[in-house]
Amino acid sequence: MPPSPQTVVVDGLGLAQEMRKEMSEVIGRHLSQDRRAPCLAVVLVGDDPASASYIKGKRRACKRIGMESVERKLPKETTEAELLEVLDELNSDDTVDGILVQLPLPGGISANTIATAIDPAKDVDGLNPVNVGRLVLGEPCHVPCTPAGIMEILERFETPLEGAQAVVIGRSAIVGKPISLLLQQANATVTMCHSRTRDLADVCRTADVLIAAVGVPKLVKGDWVKPGASVIDVGVSSVDGELVGDVDTEGVQGRAKIVTPHRRGVGPMTITLLLANTLSAYEANLA
Ligand code: NAD
User: Fold this and answer.
1) Does residue 259 sit in the same domain as residue 183?
2) CA distance linking residue 255 with residue 245, whole number of Å
3) Of 215, 257, 208, 253, nearest to 233 (Cα)?
4) Last residue of a domain, one of 68, 102, 119
5) Is 161 in contact with 188 (CB distance < 8 Å)?
6) Bridge partners, 83 (sequence order)
7) What is the distance in A from the centroid of ligand 1 to the CA of 176?
8) Which residues line ligand 1 (CB under 6 A)?
9) Is the peptide bond between 104 and the residue preceding it cis, with omega within 30 degrees of 0?
10) CA 172 – ligand 1 centroid, Å
11) Tally of structural domains, the chain
């Protein structure tokens, strides 16, 4: 791959807005045929300010494209059994297409038990084991939003994946594992790295596509990046009150073909793919 004297900094917000406009047109067509709007139910347990702010952003995003959202705010003392009852109710409500339970959950509530309790058809976060299994098998399913957003970015920037060397740093169930499966399905050769990986920098230097989903500020240095590589920075950390990504964005300038910035990069695409998953759940529900 030739070196890239000009690195393109991906405008994730612009891509997200493009996709949201497309979705709002689709919803407009449904409404013009006297159908109800798609609906996302968002469940928040406790009063974590960051979670409350994420939920507010999600609800605002729904509203802007003509999607309904309902919110269930539960006190931090809510038990797992009580939360399961709320999910039962939302599962059987035909006017709810997607269900999202904001993480993290208070101690005493198992995130896995909760993910398992969401109807797989409404599991727009893609964390129910049925959806996870379908993803492993390469069958249609709700794909977790961040990896789905990354694939959109790679596709919209015409990143060749067939036969490419892809390196994923981080092996979480929400980003690292699913993105590695999606890249394999696109015929990339994928190497998974994590906190025990030896010679991480050398492994990264083999990557045509490098995904950093770690949460260690500026872990990926410029000279870890192969000239012409596509670099996706998923990590978000706070350093002295400033948000910082996993990639030294300045260091990769002139080496990477594309890089996502830690702000207005992957983040807006994550919310957009939540909307896309809800819209596809709605269309399946209608059908
Ligand atoms: P996590 O926190 O569950 O796991 C981190 C992973 O990084 C682990 O697999 C661990 O083995 C690996 N790791 C830790 N230190 C390492 C090191 N020094 N070298 C190599 N690997 C190392 O992961 P997560 O939930 O996928 O989150 C990762 C980051 O992505 C966080 O900063 C999170 O805030 C961010 N994130 C952003 C979005 C978004 O939409 N922008 C979405 C999800 C997660």
Assistant:
1) yes
2) 18
3) 215
4) 119
5) yes
6) none
7) 8
8) 146, 169-172, 174-176, 193-195, 197, 200, 213-216, 219, 234-237, 266-267, 270
9) yes
10) 7
11) 2
Q: Same structural domain for residues 50 and 110?
A: yes
**Tell me: the pLDDT tens digits for 81-131?**
999 999 999 999 999 999 999 999 999 999 999 999 999 999 999 999 999
Pocket test for ligand 1, best of 192, 234, 247 (most atoms within 8 A of CB): 234
Distance in Å, CA 213 to ligand 1 centroid:
4
Give the mean pLDDT of the chain.
Answer: 96
pTM (two decimals): 0.95
* Structural domain of 60: 35-119
Catalytic residues: 58, 102, 125
Task: Write the CATH number for 110.
Answer: 3.40.50.10860
Question: Residue 29 and residue 282: Cα distance in Å, rounded?
Answer: 13
What digits encode the pLDDT tens for the residues 192-206?
A: 999 999 999 999 999
